[in-house]
Protein 1
Amino acid sequence: LVIREILFSSVICSLSLPAYAAGANCPVFPVGAEPSDGQLFYRDGRSLAELKLSDQIADRTPNPVQFYYVLREASDEGRAGFVVIKSGRKLGSDETGEALQSKLVHLKRSKKSIANNYPCDVPSAFDETSVAAESYDNYHDYAYDPRNKEEYEGDFHTLSKFHVRRYLGRNKACKNTDSSLWDGLLRLDFRSNRSQFSFDPIVVAFGIHSQAWKAIRQTVGGGSTGLADQRVRMKQYQTDDSKITCIPFTLNVRGRDFFLRINDLESGILRKPEGSWQLTK
Amino acid sequence: MTDRLIISSKAALVPRFALAASGCVLFIVAKSMATGGQANVGQPVYWLIGLLPFAVWGLPVAINWLEKWRSSNHRKLLPSNLQRLVSEIAFRHLVVWVCTLGVFVASHELQLANSIQSPVYEAMGYRNFTATNFILSLMYVGAGYLIWAIFFSLRDVSVMGSRARLVDLLALFVINAGVFFALVYLIPAV
């Protein structure tokens, strides 16, 4: 009888086990898949597929597309932080883009916060809204204050509310999502949390542009130049005991040259490069 | 220190010219930083505005020229010790002005400004930017004074000594903060 019970329970267990024992908010991953940090999955019809950097979303995929961004931490302490999800469309040569002053960047921050923010602060509520692309670029590409133009004072207020002060980061350190402090002066790493919000891949990879250089050699435009339908979403996360968590989000993938870029503000002691996917041709 | 202040000395013209030129460039860069990149060195109007604080040098120089032009039997407009004092105050004012601009530019370029300014913005609720800017002006001028005190005046005890000097320093602090607030923050970009 005992042997029969053991055999029966093992059969039941093998039937109920998912393909991969996933962490919080994660879907059941395909058989054989062992999700790693920074991987992106999407629901292709009924099945779940990994989106590789060179992949594009299949035409048959219904909108809005459900995505899952995987966060996996090797250390025992786990990690908490914020993920920045940027999407938009690159304008084709036959398209005329709006001026940066009139073009808008849509901002959204998830209302859901992690359970325990101690010793840092619980993020304040933020209603989704938009700011001028010029304000957005000034704030994240150059670290200018948009208040410097009277008409953008509201944008400065909006951006300051959108960003989170004293969020719970890696090793329980409290940080600001718009901190422009360099990652490491000695290793000449001029990236910062603020630079990761930029739509300019150069700013994301190398840090905020020099303000002094702009005063000497006048340059025009910012990361939003040549882009349309820009959306920025920020979501807080915390890995659980399984050291893995997922960020589920949906996106309407419409139009040509649709891109998705994801930045994890706490990806490592050395910040990982931006995850960038070209979802449509 | 006073040796450097002799108005008629031709040798003193070189450091003064260097101070004025660096002050102008620093002002334009600071103005660009404060206006979201709307000012740049290619706009002559900002060179003119940048030269304004250096006009205070014009006062003792003008008095000096006037003294030379007038015949020697006329009574002096300003006693020479007072003239020297005016020159000294003007020089100190300008060194502090350049130090303040240097602190402002360096803090922005080294990405420290946001960490310095954020608590002020938060305290003011990200509104009332005129008052916020004035508070920031006081902070930057205070830092400018600190740099000046460390590098230029601690060696010269006489500058720091008397109560009159303290009043003089406080007055210059307020004037410098007002000039910084007006020129860097208040005057809109053209």
Protein 2
Amino acid sequence: MNILDPQGPIGVAEKTILIDSLAIMLAIVVPTVIAIFAFAFWFRASNPKAVRWPDWEYSGRIELVVWSVPALTIILLGGVAWIGAHQLDPAKAVEGSAKPLTIQAVSLDWKWLFIYPDQKVATINTLTVPEGVPLRFELTSSSVMNVFFIPQFGSMIYTMNGMATQLNLRADKPGTFEGLSAHFSGDGFSDMHFDVHVVPSEQFSEWAQDASRTEKSLDERSYGEIAKPSMKNQPAVYRLADPQLFNSIVMQKLPPSPGAQAGVKGADLPAGVADAR
Amino acid sequence: MLGKLTWDAIPLDQPIPMISSGVVALAILAVLGWVVIRGHLPYLWREWITSVDHKRIGVMYTLLAMVMLLRGFADAIMMRAQQSLAFHSPGFLPPEHYDQVFSAHGTIMIFFVAMPFMIGLMNLVVPLQLGVRDVAFPTLNSVGFWLTATGALLVNISLVVGEFARTGWLPYPPLSELA
């Protein structure tokens, strides 16, 4: 969860922006706080040197300070944000050691479905990615808005029904990291967590080969079962039987998830839904 | 007359809303009883409820804000208690109830605490600062307060009757259309 311990180039750049903006803002905050105490001390009743000028009205030097410092701060902060926003455009490709791996993410009520179209694999609430390879995410939602966020990789991005968003990331160190939904999406929202396993490239190929031979297959019918609302789903792996599944979801050829209807208690789902995987 | 409203809308099986609404109803009855028995009702009606005095309206706005602050504070206690108890356990609130509590907390704290408090202070102070006798439209000012109070009443009734929104206090569509 630690954004101060980033594990990829996007996360590192965002940490730099965070610290830079903090430093720029502190450059104004710290002198102001010191000045409050300094002025209060200097203009104490017992200081004979502190003069009162009731008729004073203008000082060019004070005007210069009170206008130039905030203007410089805004220019600096705005510059950092402007340049960073362009450099870290989520749709911009990231460099890496191999050609990009495409992962299609679908936020469902209330779990994450990840589709690896080239590897013919799909997973629920677990993500396995190779180290050092650019990751090209395409994201959508089958129901309400969610935010896809792996804090240590950087860049949150919204998932929305009927459209696809893009995100490019890279993971540089092997390990297991946490991912989550960062936008409130209903009753099961707080359990929309997933583990991200970063493994060396060869190990990823092995994993993908094993997974593509899994018995459980993901097609339109089994997707219909998965899309029904359920909470606290355990990670699961599928063989991808329908490579066009993501497009069908985005283009709404497959109907959107029914969602949590008003008056329906979120946890009270028809028996067997959770076992349909 | 009541349309879709039936007894099913009252959560008789849930102790938290039933007990808390019972306590609130008792408190309201006790205050009303005290007002009536001690004969304060004519004074209250003439000097406060129908008053168009900006200072009294300001005081009533502030009082409403304070009562609702207590209400929002109760929500905050419930949310924090749930968060502290729910580590590796489900806690005492199911998700659909927790979502209602935090939606209600946000709505009440902004619309019935922050706003009435600001408007109450403005009502009290601004005419005095300007040195005028009252605000420009005193009756409209009074109507404004009583509509606010009615809104607060309706929002609080909907916590017991039927379900409160489960959408958070920034009801984003499409979630706000569904839940």
Protein 3
Amino acid sequence: MMWIRALLGLALTAAAFILAGRRLARLYRIGRRGQPADPGRTQGWSARIRAELTEVLGHRKLLAWSGPGIAHLITFWAFVVLGFTLIESYGALFDRDFHIPLIGTSAWLGFTEDLLAVATLAAVAVFAGIRRRHSPAREGRDSRFFGSHLDAAWLVLFMVFNVIWSLLLYRAAQINTGNFPYPKGAFASAALARLLRGLGYGMNSFLETAGLLVAIAVVLGFLVLVVHSKHLHIFAAPANVAFSRRPRALGALLPVYSRGIPVDFDDPGEDDRIGRGTIADFTWKGLLDFASCTECGRCQSQCPAWNTGKPLSPKLVIMGLRDHALAQAPYLLGGSTVEPTALVGDVIDPDVLWSCTTCGACVEQCPVDIEHVDHIVDMRRYQVLIESAFPAEAGVLLRNLEHAGDPWGRGARARTEWTRGLDFPVRVLDGAAVPDEVEYLFWVGCAGAFDDRGRRTSRAVAELLHTAGVEFAILGEGETCTGDPARRIGHEYLFQTLARSNVDTLNEAGVRTIVATCAHCFNTLANEYPQLGGNYDVVHHTQLLARLVETGRLTPMVPIDATVTYHDPCYLGRHNRVFSPPRELLAAVPGLRLTEPPRNRERSFCCGAGGARMWLEEKIGTRINETRVDELLGGEPDLIAAACPYCIDMLGDGLALRAHQDVVDDHVEVTDVSEILLRSVRPAEVPQDLERH
Amino acid sequence: MTEAPVSTVLVVAERAKTAVRKSTVELLTLARRLGEPVAVVCGEVDETFAQTLSRYGAATTYVVDATDAYPPVATAAAIVELAQRLPAVAVLATSGSYGKEVAARVAVGLTTVGLDTGIITDAVDVRPDPEGPVATQDVNAGTWIAESRVRRGISVITVRPNAVIPEPAPTANVVEQISADGRGEPVPRVVNRTVVTATGRPDLADAAVVVAGGRGVGSAEGFELVGRLADALGAAVGASRAATDLAWCPHELQVGQTGKTVAPQLYLATGISGAIQHRAGMQGSRTIVAINKDPKAPIFDIADFGVVGDLHSVVPALIEEIGKRTATP
């Protein structure tokens, strides 16, 4: 009997290893055909090890959603610990009374194995419940599983269930035949054994062998299923987490890399790959991203585009690219000379590509650290720089940036108009070096200089800094757009031109510390200019003002009897982790009551303006800004505070529409945190400017 | 004694529905400064069309036979052929999607046949010079004025609408057919045509007068008032994004960053606050008049004339006054 059992077990194992091995080898070969990634991927190992510990072993990102997170944590650790039972079952193939040497009969190990087996059954029940409750059939597009492979997911759950019951079955039979390693501790196996005892020794002996073979077959079948399905993440995800951008793929965008080397836009090489035009242009890390996607849909559930009826879902983008990569495998592996088709149009719809606001909600959520925004921007780069194919309205934006240095085409001369009427002079560098007594260069930004709402913020910040006795200066006509919209629409060349000119201006003036009111300028100055040799201490105005309040240089005294709700700008919060300073400022104002919208901080919902969408028409679905305004109005605020001119414009437009529709009272206004602070600090000197809403 | 050779200036003629587009007669006016204008138009034209062109100085009108060819390609091919046949010094086109495409294709085509050429886009004026036509451009949002000249060969210049006030200079009227020889290159074909419903108003992009309405107009019914004022002035109707978002008027009427860019002689903004995104589409207007009840609206920062008041009383009064003045002989 024993030799049949061993032979069957080994035959099954060999068959499964051949099937799984061939598949894995093929996937590996496809991955190796990817382009070289940027060199940063293999640097900073302490952060990478920390990520493995916290995100893979500790499930940090999965646990942000407690229910499914805990269920997944249990399943993950169960599969790690059940590795012991795998050793035991293979041992039992050859030695009926096998046990792991040294620890193999300890009650604690038996107990742990059984505990995790039972917990996994509970986790499977939780997963099944979640999948039923939130099935696309019930919730449609609102379901995070919409568009995922549902049958495969159910099959995986069923297989996990099979792994557990078959394990418990043969363990129970082992107890009844006297071949079980654990005299004590394995409570679940023991309970099942009591039920089976009545069947007699012969039957239990059969169940022991049959159960063992079924258990091995199920595990091997599961292995084959895993490498052929989205469940490949079991192997791919730990690798993907190891090679992802650290601390996260947010904030700065990477420069355009070709073959792992940044492209020199002054003299690009003949064969440089600019952006991603076909699947062959993706790096191995991109391909690993696609292989890691588990189709959980957390990204989709947070995406402002998807949630307002647009065709973009970060999950479907990644799935589409993965399916396309597998379909193009013959070309990638050199077996076919038929060039892969263009991505945009055939694989990714242009409406998908241009709907992205680069808000980063997907990247923030992804438990396996897929870099959705980078892939979308890389595909935009190819469309803009190689195909010149972009939404028509973007032409106006790009032309204005080229000719006037700002998105609206106002030109340098109007850059200081916002200072008119201030009752103190604003120091304008105009090419001169920063004087010693100046603590901060105030980066005004295009919105802060030209946009009516933005100008109010610039004036409020200038007044507050003046009141606090902070010496600051502005560049005046020397400032141009930082290049954020150009870079995020994919026009890297224009970004480089604008950024280099600004870096030259700032370096020549000897600027070291910068305060910016625009979250996008802030992000670009702080995170992207170092790529071009511009290294500055950059603070957002809410950070600086919070410090001034904390140190007593500004004292909000006049009570404001109002309810305020705070909208986290994506590029301040999620991309740069500045969550507290704006809230501290609002909390410092006497009388003000702060309410939080349902989606806040890391999960804040975009205003719709990022990724250069500020200058594009939003024609599909409902408006993102209106959706967000409705959510913010849920807290019945008198004031909606934000800390970014893009957000303030978008929310201001949304609010004006709702006021026009009589959905909300006329007194509600959208304003920058600094303006609210100013009302409490210097009430007497501002009313004429603040009456205008 | 032989006559001095007359240099020919090829003008890309465009149509507004069936009539000659206003920017085309502006081009003819400019072309006469440089030499003898010759018009090139794509597709069949009627008698009046050719007469209009000759009234503004086009001695010859070449009609490009392009039944189902893609018009910019056919027109450019015809112009390249004409430029070789006539002693052409310049090609003028309107700075718009059609004119720019033709101009770019002409410049490439001339180079292909071995002629020297160069292209200048978005000119706001053109003047003759012994060394070749000099084009004026607004640079850096009007902060600078640049004058440039094509150094060798045929100058291809696109000119913005409303650059010059059209002046008639009647001449004889010759219409000639010319077929678009694509030189064996594949010429794109037109596969479908959709007719846009006529409003009876001038085209927004090159109207001399634009009356625009914004959120302050209040309703779709209120927006009809804007249309009435436009009709009284013979103007085109524009709108801010707020008004098009509220579906008070078609989306195509949006003036601004993401809509149309206009630069009329007169821009009359009613109930428009003047947000930067709107301003980006109309800041090049010659004269801006604003009607708004909020004296602090930013539109007044750029308006040459402003009326602080409720447009629902100001505009009807204005229409009445215009009616009175146009009625008196």
Protein 4
Amino acid sequence: MGNSAIRMGVDIGGTFTDVVIEVEGKQFSTKVLTTYIAPENAIIDGLHQVCAKAGVAPSDIGQIIHGTTLATNALIERRGAKTALITTEGFRDVIEMRTESRFEQYDLNLTLPEPLIPRQSRFSISERVDATGGVLVDLNRAEVEAVADQLNAAGYESIAVGLIHSYLNPYHERMVRDVLAEKLPDVMVSLSSEVSPQMREYERFNTVVANAYIKPLMKSYLGRLKGRLEDEGANCSVFLMHSGGGIISIESAADLPVRLVESGPAGGAVFAANTAARYGLDKVLSFDMGGTTAKICLIKNQTPKTSRVFEVARTYRFKKGSGMPISIPVIDMVEIGAGGGSLAHIDSMRQIRVGPESAGSEPGPACYGRGGDKPAVTDADLVLGKLDPNNFAGGSIQLHADSSADALVNVLGKTLDMDAQTAAFGLAEVVDENMANAARVHAVENGEDLSEYTMIAFGGAAPLHAGRLCEKLGVDRLLVPTGAGVGSAIGFLRAPFSFEANRSVYMKLSDFKPDVIKSLLTELQDEATGFVRSCDATSDIISEFKVYMRYTGQGWEIPISLSAEQATLPDADTFLKLFEADYSALFGRTVDGMDVEITVWSVNATTPPEQVAQIALASDTGAATVAGQRALFDPALATVSDAQVVLRNDMKTGQTVQGPAVVTEDETTIIVPSSRQVTAQPDGTIDMTTKGAQV
Amino acid sequence: MSTPSNVAYQVMWNRMISVVEEQAQALVRTAFSTSVREAGDLSAGVYDTAGQMLAQAVTGTPGHVNAMADAVGHFIRRIGRENIFEGDVYITNDPWEGTGHLHDITVVTPSFHKGELAGFFGCTAHIVDIGGRGFGADAASVYEEGLYIPIMKLVNRGEVDQTLIRIVRGNVREPDQLVGDIYALATCNEIGHRRLIEMMEEFGLDDLNGIGGFILENSRRATLECINALPHGEASGEMTVDGFSAPITLKVKLSIEQDRILSDFAGTSGVDKKGINCPLVYAKAYACYALKCAIAPEIPNNAASLAPFEITAPVNSIVNAVHPAPVALRHIVGHFVPDAIYAALDQLLPNTVPAEGAGCLCNFQVSLRPRTDAAHTVGARRAEVLTFNSGGAGARPQFDGLNATAFPSGVMTMPIEATEHTGPVIIWRKELRPDSGGAGKFRGGLGQYMEVGAQEGHEFDFQAMFDRVDHPARGRQGGENGAPTTIIQDDGAKMYGKGKQFVAHGRRVVLAFPGGAGYGPVSERDPELVKRDLARGYISTETAARDYGMTQQEIEAVQTAVTKGEMVL
């Protein structure tokens, strides 16, 4: 069964499949092109590459942790199974009617995304549970049997069951499943009361539908993967990264594949959290910028912030509301359409706009010289001196600065009366401001002040922009860890076994029922622990309790963490105090005279976090060897300066470089603004700080 | 400090839009009113010292757009510049100087930087209750519609006016919620203010004159470019809807001229006796919204981008109701203004605007109480439940109308599971209404069915706020009309489209909300889309045969395919 000290992380992304093997703390990684038709092929390819690099055999591997965008892509590309929905009579169109609103108010030709399941595949049955969980209309077994016959005749492969108020009373949904199991034993069934037992029918139904839709595909893929790995001799356990930042068994993943959505980015957040732990940082902003999007996440006390609902498959310029809501525990990330390939244009107000349209890899930014004639963020970076045209992606792509300049002048400069450099400055400032705004809004929504934060940057384009972002956000320290190009896959290796169970049950503090709370939390704890125990038979399991509270009448709950003691001996006064403290931290005041209610209860069961040895910060050992000089535009000073060029590999522990500078490596380039300096830390992390600041 | 560069101004404009969005999000998170938190019935903006709006949050609904743009000017005039101090907060719910009815509270906060007035933040929210008769059309004058708060100081140099707070508390049904909402409005302005000052410090600004001028100049030029690219001309449009006491005709003459578009509502019906009248600010908001959608959709709302859209209407017409006309449900008339505008605009700009849609939101309020015709049931209680719902939108020149989607309003519906938690109401049905979309080359959006009852032991008053019972949405360019609104009790008892009506214990209200109208002749509809509509059940077999000319054989082929699971796209 392999050696427990040898573990492999695999992240299937849209373009590349990243594979990392860790042998006694040492990492070997590779990037292989994703093979869409049979994604396991790329994994096997990568497996052999990293095994060769590490000098181990596949059979030596003790554990494989896997994360993938396959679930997300299946939802975006509508490549799921032939799926039907069974729902309460009178509510056939919940997933189609959405919120009955337009996510873009000024577009007369707006079209809404089609639901995953069209109307003729949505069946309703007479039954009804009310808002207290009581049964208003009994379920009629014969009616369900008749629907089962119809489903059979039409050949559906997967069935979602979503009934009104089933999060309070799952009995009818379970009866439907029993009938389907008898009549259609080969068809997969997903219940909304199991996949997402939360109030709000649109989100819950959509989540169970998404789960059912991708279940056959994911189940078959995971089965094939296991088989192929065994064929290659890797017969160790395989675990899956989930969107909440932990790992679950391959069987749980096949049952609840919707929880795999966003597993790649979750791995990135865990990677950043692990770096935060090494540096003993309690307030971290992770910043991941790739070719098409940038992702921002708050990490407090080395734990990424989580949320209960997010939106996948946005169809309209990344606009909120244009995708489909999925209510599952998820790491709370802001994603905006800003990456190296994002294209710029001028709008009718003569303002520079950047993204979300992206140049992709073909034709790519203008500087690739493959026919792209619109300026991308990479073009601006090149013209501003941030990139070396002769040494991009390790020299594998020759960049053409003149093509960038032409595109910048033609698309932006002519209208705005700017030369290529000023247009590049404008483009870069706009994209950096967009990202900074997203970070600011996210921080404000969470009641956080970013000036107390440290940024951790990874992803190909992040180190080019992170320094400027720190200036804009008033962040004094930035870490760029090693392995940033395969950060998600490394993150998988650092993730605990975990599972979060949650449920909507309304309770006012004026009607506080400690016994109900105790049994509810115990039930959730048992459910969550069960998932974790199936992965690890012996480890300690920690339970983290959270309740979502609000003033009665409000629509927005805030998450309140409870200690184990507060959860086992619930007390209304304590709950109120905890709520008021967090509410005033967020909104500056509390509201007198209002009752407070709890809407959602959640228990996250997790194995204890890996013990991370804190790094002893390097002391200054003098200036690093300078490999050269180049002209670099500094946006804060709005002028060109003469920057030192340093090779990252040349930087010894403790060596420093004063900005303006560029620190280069094959995968990326770290831009050090004039206001900053960098130090190489013992683990290879580049530590950037404001000159003269105490951090 | 030298003049900031064009690049710096670009960054600042972006930042200001982000600032007002943060301001709006803070309101969504802290407000108590369902209409704000679930439905987004709010707006937030930043203004220069002259009261000109510089930026407005994207989050919000069109009805507040122009109304908010004008409001701050009224505040400056009423408060008096000499009385504006750091730490002040102002308030009103004046329908004519705010946003059209007493249920909208507008709060304005002056923003001081280095001891000098730099600008203002303003925000508006639709609140739960303002006393009076409650939210509905039944009042005969604005005096009956609730408490009136003239433009005044809520906070004077940091000190809250407790007298005002006591008067407010004493006059409304949900005092804690309303006071909570008022503070939420003040807090959201405060958040906007703090972020603006951070920006001014970062860029070394002493005032907003430079960036304000940059925003307004670029917006004005862009708007005029859009307008001046249109053919000049005049056209008139009119439409008739149910109204309350009598049908209402909205008449508008649109003139596209150099540098402006004028909408003149001369000939529009006079005010109604009941509370569906619309102050001019609100009619202006929707007229302007309709025109901006069609002509200049990407230009953000601010004083300069709104100015070229001029609107006039005769005093005492239903789109220019003056004090003391009742105006609580001004949205009903306001939501029809775009369809009236489009009737005219279609003649000047062919192939641009949609056919008529459901228009006004299909809202209703349910006032539940323990049954009075028999002994009390244990646990029976009183509750007020307001819901927002939508009919179908009109078909477009190249697309079908959106099913059960609000237009022109920007608000969202509430989940029925959430609605049922707010009171002992039961929503038995909420789903699409087949055959309600007007036929055409492009089909109108479907309306929806709803069925509303109460938990055992309750009876209720049903406050209806519907239109299009007698006047369904009219097709455009040869498209057919949408289906009208119907409202009835489950035992067949008649109900009316508007007003408060009693529903006895055990009875349900059965509603069918209107569909949008079709666009273009039905003969030109793509046969594949007709088959798809039949497969999905958007149209019945009868409609497929009668309106779209499908043969029996074709219909059966579709039905068989669906049964076999072959046509499930």
